[in-house]
Amino acid sequence: MKSPRAYGLRLTWLISYLLRRSEDARGLRRLGVLGRRSDIWEKLEWVTREVAPRLRLPVDLNGYFREEDREGGKLRGFPGGSIWEIEGIFLYGIARALRATVIIETGTYRGCSTRHLRLAVSRNGAGRIYSVDLNPATSTGFESDEWVTPVQSDSVVWLEANPRLVRQCGLFFHDSDHSPEHVGREIRAVWPNLPPGAVAVCHDVCSPAHNPPTGSGTWSAFGDAVGGQAYRLDFHPLSDCGLGIARKS
Ligand SMILES: C[S@@+](CC[C@H](N)C(=O)[O-])C[C@H]1O[C@@H](n2cnc3c(N)ncnc32)[C@H](O)[C@@H]1O
Predict the structure, then answer these.
(1) How far is the CA of 182 from the centre of ligand 1 (A)?
(2) pLDDT tens digits, residue range 148-200?
(3) CA–centroid distance, residue 84 to ligand 1 (Å)
(4) Taking the model in full, what pTM does it have?
(5) Which of 69, 87, 229, 241 fits as disulfide partner to 83, beta carbons 3.0 to 4.6 Å?
(6) How is domain 35-247 classified at the CATH fold level?
(7) Is-contact 197 170, C-beta < 8 A?
């Protein structure tokens, strides 16, 4: 007679096989078949090697990542709508490398990206994150503390009312309303005022839902608003969202 462990292993294998057949990558991630830490490091190494020189970022960007950090991501302690873990780790690395003292993000939600950014500024030993969200009902993730100031407002209204902060902002992260109209308005409210060397990052530049094959989408709106000097980071299959990134010269 087989042991319960042997049955368990067979069942895991069967579920993983069926999910693979149905190409449900999300299901595989839930099982931990995809999205292991080793997959994340491998992908990040490749991505940072590709983009770091083009963005004048340190090529050893990966040196900031720590194996023991578990800030999480979508399906790793955070609900759908949050960023994926690999994107959070990448954002963390950028924030550490830039040593930005003012970071602005739009779209707090449950605070997944905020947690990664917060870890970065706390390890840098300086910096403040302004995390702007329209909806207090969804953005329950963060209280104000020494590193984070949650702001309840429409992002464009707040950005236009705070040009002084935008002029000091070293890292801007868009993750609010991904409609091309809103992305365009938001990025145009910050890009001209960001200081030289500042980086703007835009979530969801790869997902089909926000980037239809024809017409405009999140990626084209971001690229247009930064004057065409953006790169698209595709973390597939560890994320189906992706990050757009541009650096102010
Ligand atoms: C995709 S979620 C953000 C996820 C978050 N960055 C994370 O990693 O957990 C989008 C958030 O943007 C907010 N939002 C939508 N439109 C907005 C606007 N015009 N201004 C500010 N926030 C907005 C929503 O309330 C929602 O909480």
Answers:
(1) 12
(2) 999 999 999 999 999 999 999 999 999 999 999 999 999 999 999 999 999 99
(3) 15
(4) 0.88
(5) 87
(6) Rossmann fold (3.40.50)
(7) yes
